[in-house]
Each structure stands twice: as C-alpha cells, then as structure tokens.
Give the backbone structure.
Amino acid sequence: MLVIVCYDVNTEDRAGRRRLRRVAKVCESTGQRVQKSVFECQVTLAQMDLLERRLLAEVNLDSDCLRLYRMADTRGCEVREYGRFKATDFEDPLVL
C-alpha cells in the first residue's frame, strides 16, 4: 500500500531541529521524499505500523504535527505531478 507521510516539526529551538532531522531519517529509510516534509512510502501493513511507531517516538505531540495518509489501493489513487521532481514508480520493473 502507498502511505503519504507529512510532518511539520517546530524548529524554534535546538531540540526541535534535532527532532526534524530524526523524523526525516526515519522517513528516508522507508520511502522517497517528494517535498521537504512529505514522503511517499510503499509498505505492507506491518511496515506501516512500524513506521508509525518510529515516527511517534520522535515527534513532540505538543508542538509538532504528523499526518499519515493510507492509500490502500494505489491503482485507484491518482497522482498528478508538475515540476522537476519525478517519483519512482514502485509498480514498474526496476532496472539497475
């Protein structure tokens, strides 16, 4: 399934800047960055649960915001892209 992760971390202090880096590292380990604070992750249900737990361990729920959008059937999900970035299509064959 496709999961969209969006976050906004309060970086007014040093701890917030550290949290921002840690949240980004968790997301980078699972998916691809499509905007500064938005990631697309192709995961199983178990991987999504793990991703959610790892992210919740990093954010401060009193000052940060975390949103996860679960797209259960990517075939029914339409994504329109504009601009320079072109996402990797995980459904197509990967050629190395």
